[in-house]
Amino acid sequence: MKQSHLFTRTRREAPKDEVSKNADLLIRAGYISKDMAGVYSFLPLGLRTLNKIVGVIREEMNSIGGQELQLTALQDKKVWETTGRWDDRNVDIWFKTHLKNDTELGLGFTHEEPLTVLMREHIRSFRDLPVLAYQFQTKFRNEARAKSGILRGREFLMKDLYSFSTDDAEHMNVYESAKQAYRRIFDRLGIGGETYVTFASGGSFAKYSHEFQTLSEAGEDVIYVHEGKRIAVNKEVLNDEVLADLGIARADLQEKKAIEVGNIFSLGTRFSDAFGLTYKDAEGTSKSVVMGSYGIGPSRVMGTIAEMWSDEKGLKWPDAVAPFAVHLIALFDKEGKVKAAADELYERLTTKGVEVLYDDRDSGAGEKFSDSDLIGIPQRIVMSEKTLAQDSVETKDRATGKVEMMKVESL
Ligand code: ATP
Ligand code: MG
Fold it and tell me: What's the CA gap between 292 and 172, in Å, rounded?
């Protein structure tokens, strides 16, 4: 993409009311735009990065047998009354609205209920199981505090996978494979090293759930990390019984702030019993389906990466999530020689399938470099009169700052 064509501008200052680092950087670099607290639009650069994150998650969900679908955002009150989750005393984050005939509707904040209802049409026998179904969908939550940029949106993207199994043993197999897939996802997205499988409250069906918590000062959660075992315990459940279960000592734990980037949850038969989702086993006996749910917030992950991979000059995207692989910067001369050579290099790189953002604007070097630092594309390639005199370009690695001269041909 030619930067002269990109409609977004970088800016010096984020909105005055923006207090989070991730949103400050992403707004200034032109990735996102703030409409209200907790409500952000994704601009072309931001959408490219978000879609890369989505792509990695999708590959890993498919690799464990996930089937992608898309459920509705508008939610039927009756369905949610069945589990008691329509009541604002039980769920305090609903956005609710009315049809013209005064029927109440909700905007989906999660999707266990409607998917369980849907599966009644499709699951009949043990041969149909297990089923893993997932989606990427905008969720709506009336979050009390929305001060963490895209880490906590009132409207945000979620990947939610739900599993349907015959029994606890089959469920635990699925659960383990999802846990491994989550590890691979966060490794591939460049935050694996700082992300800990964290024991958290399990609800009524399992002793624990597992959160994936990424260490960060921007985090709203407090966890206790066991560096040796690379696990952690959420502060909410830290007690002697948990320590005994995990075979760890309180003295070996370090208190840290962290961002919950994902979580996996055993649901038992809570939802299948509520809606009568059953299957026939090999003897023809009717049994309740055992369920699990597995969430990741791709937009929260993007904010987490921005918090972790950035410096005072701007963003430093890991390769897997950068909007472009290469930022080609041409410093034009009067005769137009640099422009001709840079245009040609741009064509050659894009023809080879390299994703290039080409700064072909008529701006000065200072502006081009500071914009490039802010936008944070991993590899910068500078072409100028000086480098052309040596048939070369200058490359700079955004993360390490390493600069090299390289012949155009070898590039
Ligand atoms: P939190 O405790 O941070 O509110 P949660 O326990 O409500 O999260 P889930 O309902 O399990 O989270 O949602 C699954 C995933 O969706 C979370 O692990 C997180 O990555 C993401 N997520 C949840 N709430 C938000 C939000 N308001 N904005 C962005 N992402 C979110
Ligand atoms: Mg929440």
Answer: 9
- 180 Cβ partners below 8 Å, 6+ apart? 64
Could you tell which of 32, 91, 158 is best to mutate to test the pocket of ligand 1, judged by most ligand atoms within 8 Å of the CB? 158
198 CA → ligand 1 middle, Å: 15
Locate CATH 3.40.50.800 in the chain. 326-407
Give the distance (Å) from ligand 1 centre to CA of residue 232: 18
The residues of the chain that CATH labels 3.30.930.10 are 3-73+108-311
User: Parallel, antiparallel, or unpaired: how do β-strands 326-330 and 208-215 relate?
Assistant: unpaired
CATH number of 3-73+108-311: 3.30.930.10
Alpha-carbon torsion (139, 142, 143, 148), positive or negative: positive
- In a structure prediction context, what are the per-residue pLDDT tens digits for the chain, which is 411 residues long? 999 999 999 999 888 888 999 999 999 999 999 999 999 999 999 999 999 999 999 999 999 999 999 999 999 999 999 999 999 999 999 999 999 999 999 999 999 999 999 999 999 999 999 999 999 999 999 999 999 999 999 999 999 999 999 999 999 999 999 999 999 999 999 999 999 999 999 987 889 999 999 999 999 999 999 999 999 999 999 999 999 999 999 999 999 999 999 999 999 999 999 999 999 999 999 999 999 999 999 999 999 999 999 999 999 999 999 999 999 999 999 999 999 999 999 999 999 999 999 999 999 999 999 999 999 999 999 999 999 999 999 999 999 999 999 999 999
| C-alpha 374 to ligand 2 mean position (Å) | 30
With 0.85 as the threshold, say if the pTM is over it. yes
Instruction: Please state the atom number of ligand 1 nearest to the C-alpha of residue 303.
Output: 29
Which residue type is seen at 297? G
Q: In the structure, which protein residues have their CB atom closer than 6 angstroms to any atom of ligand 1? A: 110, 141, 143, 152-153, 156, 158, 260-263, 295-297, 299-300
> What CATH architecture is 326-407?
3-Layer(aba) Sandwich (3.40)
Question: CB atoms < 10 A from the CB of 269, how many?
Answer: 16
Name the closest ligand to CA 155. Answer: 1
- The bound ligand whose nearest atom lies closest to the alpha carbon of 221 is 1
